[in-house]
Amino acid sequence: MQFFEHVKNFLDQLLGPTTFFLFSTVGFAALVLFRSWWTKPSVALGITIATIAFFLISVTDSDLAITVEKPDNVPIIIMLASLWLFLWISMRKMVVNDDLIAKGLPTVEARESRKRVLCWPDLLYQEFLCIIVLSILLTWWGIELKAPLEEPASPTKTPNPSKAPWYFLGLQEMLVYYDPWLAGVVFPSQIIVGLMAIPFIDPNPKGNGYYTFKERPFAIVTFLFGFVVLWVLLIMLGTFLRGPNWNFFGFYEFWDPHKIEALTNVNLSEYFYNLLLGDALPGNILLRELPGFVTVFAYFVVLPPIMANTVFRKLFLEMGFIRFNIMANLFLFMAALPIKMALRWLFNLKYIIAIPEYFFNI
Amino acid sequence: MKEAEKKPDPKDPNFIPPLVGSEATRALAEVFYDPPESADTLYRVPALNVAFAVSSALLFAVTVWSIWQDHSRDWKNYNAEWRATQTDDYRQKISEENLRLQKEQFATKEAELATLQAALDSNSQFEKAADQAVLAETAAGLAETDARFFKSELDAERFVFEENRKHVLDGPLKDTAEGRAKLAAIEKEFEANWVQRYEDLLRIAEEKLTRAKELRNKADEIAKERNARKKEIATLIRARDQLAGNLRNVESSAANVLRNAPLIPPYGPTNVIEKVVLNDLTEPMNFLDVPRVDRCKTCHINIDSTDPALAEFTDERMVHGGRLFRSHPRIDLYVGSASPHPYEQFGCTICHYGDGHSTSFEFAAHTPRDDAQKREWEKKYHWHKLHHQDFPMLPMGYISSTCAKCHPEQDRIEGAEKYNAGREMAEEYGCFACHKIEGFEKYRKVGPNLQRIANKVDRGFLYRWVKDPHGFRPTTKMPKFFDLSNSSGTFNIVNNEGILEPHDFRLRNEVEALSIAAYIEKASRSRPVSELYRNPVQQGHAARGKEIFLNVGCRGCHSVVREGWIQNDHGPDLGAIGSKLKPEWLADWIVDPQKHDPQSRMPRLRIETEENGPQKLADLVAYLMTLRDADFEARPVPAVDAGRERILREIAFDYYRRTNTRAESQKWVASRAVPDLLPYVGEKLIGRYGCFGCHLGISDEFDKMAPIGTELSTHGSKEIDRLDFAKWGHQASGEYAIPKSRAGWFTHKLTNPRIFDVIPKQVRRLDGSRGYEATESVLQKTPEELLKMPYFSFRTVADPRDLSDPVQAEKFRLARAARIDAVVTFLLSRVDDKDRIPLHKKRRLNAEEQALEEGRNLIRYLNCQGCHRLGVDPQTLPLKDLPTYSFDVSDEEKVRNEVEGETWLAEDLTLGTMTIPAGTFLNTELRDANEPANEDLFSVRMLAHRWWEATNKPERERVLKVLGYQEGRMRRYFGDSAEARPRAAPILRKEGDRVHGEWLFKFLRNVKPLRLQLDLRMPSFSITPEQTAAIVRWFKLTAGAPYPALNLTRQEAETLQPWWRVGRDVPLPPLIDLKPAQIAALKKWSAKDGRPLYPHEEFAAHNLNEEGVRIAKVGREMFQVTTPDDKPGTVRLQCNTCHPAGDKKPTVQDQNSWGPDLGLARERLRPDWIERWLLDPASYMPGTKMPNNFFLPSADDDPDTPRSEKFLRPNFQDEIQAILQYLMHMRQIDAAAAPAR
Fold first, then answer.
1. Tens of pLDDT along B11-66?
2. How many CB pairs under 8 A join A and B?
3. Whether pTM exceeds 0.90
4. Which residues of B touch A106 (CB under 8 A)?
5. Can you state the angle between helices A17-33 and A321-347, rounded to 10 degrees?
6. Which of B58, B289, B727 has the most A C-beta neighbours within 10 Å, making it the best mutation to test the interface with A?
7. Which residue of B has its CA nearest to A114?
8. What residues does each domain of chain A span?
9. What is the ipTM, given to two decimal places?
10. Which residues make Cβ contacts (< 8 Å) with residue B406, sequence separation at least 6?
């Protein structure tokens, strides 16, 4: 028991927002790099069993159990499990197909499409079975877990923590790092516009109708990073790790509303003038925020040409000027979130441009 | 298997590589997959069929399960269980009886209905009357029209008539006889033909109209009656339908079983959710105030039943031991339909809280009353605390707190004893001094005024007192500020740099107390000694002073704990008063307390104004100064040495730094000497600790300051998450160290006010349960951040003194916990919910009740009951507390029993045909009832028993409402002997019945001793005329005497309006010398208002005529002491033996036997009271020395003769009248008799 307590405390210590995100990113990189190893059924099964065991041991902790057993959070656990399952299926197919392609053989999908399948019983019977099984599952769920109703809404008493619906927790996490007009308006619009633009900015015809990684690594890595790390894992973070006062709590920590966290952050202009120049902040707002303006300008305007000439040279040539710039713009918007996170954690940077006088903060 | 043996060939384009390649999964796949080359389908249909069969069966199972889940609810089970018990022996009786009664009722209702209906049907009176009325109205209308037509013709004719007249008057016949005759003819003709006719028409129309109106009224009346009948029928139909419904539901028939089966609800099950919707008692729900819906009765089926058998219902075979099916306790007061709080109007959750919508034990938010019950519930019902329920049900211990929601105007709510106790403590200990509490603005500050404190005590005492008030006087209401759990010892604090450093709080406490003492002394605006009372007597004798102290009445308010005189704690314990006060101040204070503190409640004793008064005062002061506490005096007052000076400078720096820069502060502190810094720091600390909340007069600035604490007006509904449990909140064990409830937080805060600065540790208690205790580790804060609420001892003079004895200490701990519980109950009553309760649901006091409330508060404030017995608050006494009374004791003991145990009824009791009126003495008056002489019948206990039996009271509701118990503790000082008792203060039961209001008012305004022989004296209270009037009004109301008892003519009364505002001496109108005109006016006034004359007015109205004078002279003779010259047979009552009368001294030498001065009888006593009193003094005031003069000394004990005939002298009425006449007109009769002597 004592040993478990130590392990729990150690894990709690480990699970700061910084480390959580860092581990997620590193884990994601490993997922991509070592895909041919971990998608082996035995390895994947081993990881799955180990994770389930870890999870089962963990929920013996009363504090974690409170969060996990909330009827609200059960679908999130199911979502994480199904994400893992589908990730494995797709990656496994990618690995197999890449192998076949490397040998010059037809892909799995190409083979499957040669075979004809009957509507009955091959399709309908299965669907019917699915309906029944899901009905059983939902009925059982409905009986066992009651509707997760909370207290009546009151204008004088808001819940603490006050959380968005689970599917928006990723967006809510962005609010920690960006002002509402960015995190609540600009970024979500960018996400929608970006998703809509994908077919137009992706000229690569490969991977049509079959799984492959090697033939479109950039597209897959970017999408998976955006979806798995920046969306799903942030939902998980928002569900299990964000507690009262939006403070960060380890898995096994009690959500103590009186917990105090150190939260002192500094703007870029203060770094620039106070620390670098050893000077006071200029009174003129524009002058004061000049470093910020320069940085943001550089990020969105100077960086794309540099990218086009270096790392993304090949891509630039394939896509052409306009497509590339649109893609680069969207990409930079997506990268802005992890970058800002890193800056916050490493340098306690609050805003790059901070004009609270006009509610304009970046 | 064939497939598995075949080597997979990736080059074969028909081969599809599986995602999972192991043997096991391939085998699994083969169950469902056909080999590709062998079948038409991809899947194996038989396997799918099996899967389909299994899953279908499962789906069916979960469907059944879901229906069962929906059907199997606790409340349905309870309902069924209750229904099932109706076949049990016990219930059978009730249910069959009920069923029979209901059937009978049903039949009766049906019959009534039929009769009424028939009566209504056959009733054609209305139609007839209505027809007649319409006809008459038509006729009246026609007649009126006729008259109107004729009127217009008349007007036209009038013109012709005037013209004709003009012709005659102006024409050739002017001034001739013919002309006059013609004129007369014209006028006569006009008068007869027109005017007269018109008048006839008008008369006819009016007659017809009257007739029509009569008929219409008659028809209306009949209609009214008919409507009433119709309403009656509707009520009957409703009642009948309800009965029919009940009948259907009670019957256990196959239909009922079917109706209650699962999935049948549309057919109307009989076990339905019982709910009451309270449209006017709303609760907030999602931004709206919605009607309260209470479904509690769904499970508590019989909660509003008045069946006495259900009050104590128990059946161990049933769920909750059958207690669930009990009716509510005190069904006469709560929930019952005839009670003031019927279920239909109040529901349940308005008092109990909890979720009224819910029908499950868990979600209705039941709250266990203690830890043991909590554990039991957890085991039995899987009970757990509901997270989102802000107002779970109140534990029963605190239930009286909710009474205050609807009873805001009453400071004391009858029946809510715990709440009352808590409220009284909040008032006495001055919670409102630091915490604003709505409704408490009216109270005086609880501490003494410190404006001239330096006159009273010296600085050494001030220091010792401020540092540890309980060390000087354990029972003081002043709380302790220093050496508490977060401020004793040395531990780390955060200094103002934010750095941890060790800090010695013992030294700091000393410095703080020194500073406060220094400031208070410096700010004191003392009087020069020359302004204090100068006693011409130099030397007092302590021994004589002690006698005075014991007898003059000091102990009516004060205790001296160490002498064992511990009955009263209205004023402070005087045990060590000599160690505190300066003698010259003490003398001045006794002479006039209000000179020092205008708000002081201490009355003046007028000692210095009496004969030999200055000597008595000096003696008293000398005695009081001998009461000393040497240990306390020996406590050192520390000097400000280097260590203390460092701390002093630190504190000064902290305070100065708040408004100045660091360098400025350092410079300022360094430049000040210690004597300058002490008061500076003291002033700041007074601001921090809020001393000015309780004490006026520290300085003018402090007097204006707002209290420092959190407002408590709505603290009972404060969100629990906003109460800072600090480290006493969530623990490693997953629980809170103290109950996570308002009550839990309040209790711990009051028990140890600094507890939330301390870290808890888990301990195992003796009973094996786990709990948490405070450690000595204190949270690291700056000194300013440390909690500052002081420690209240809540100790009374009756508590054990020596707390070093563990048994005594435990006793006191329990007593203190009970008092804190009462305060917590009071705090829980301060909720914002009260604003949501509509006016008509609140208890509003009428003028009389308001006057009673006001008077009662005043009497408690002045502590009248310290000396007198009044019967201020009705109390409900459980059996064990009822006074015992037995005939079988010595006479002396008997009398004492009567005096000390006297208790009188608070409300009427009905025993069979006998009604015992409220106000009856339980011990003496009942004994006199014409009952068989069995002594048991007359004991209070027996009486109570009989009454309870007769009124069918269940055991748990057996209480008797009484008045006057446990008051007048001062009486006990004078010992038990018959000689000693008259030295005590008189019993004031029904004082308003005894004396005139004017006299009482005048007496209270300007006290003049009545019983000259007493050492004990009525003090002069510092109260306003309005307050005096309120007290008089209270006495009158509680005695049921008429009020205002005006002895004035109306004219006089009007000149005095409002009469109580006039001032100290209201002139009394002469009663005896009323002029005949005044008497007439009085009678006329009485007749006009329909108000009967009060007896004394009647008396006054019968002014002394010759006959009156004769009677009064007889009375005068009876009043005198027997002389040797008396002829045999002379009747003398010899009142003068004991009673002084003006200048006539009593003849008896023993002053203890003296009665009140009868020279005052006329202006003081009400004549009708005198009559009753003379007849039987003992029943009016048990234990009185007044003999019964009209009882025959011996009578034969014939049980058939009524008592009044048996014992009373034959002429008693005449004799009483004679005495009465003499008492009323004593001066006049004496004056007339004087020359004759």
1. 777 677 766 666 666 777 777 776 656 556 777 888 889 999 999 999 999 999 99
2. 102
3. no
4. 13
5. 140
6. B58
7. B14
8. 2-114+162-361, 116-148
9. 0.82
10. B834, B837, B841, B842, B843
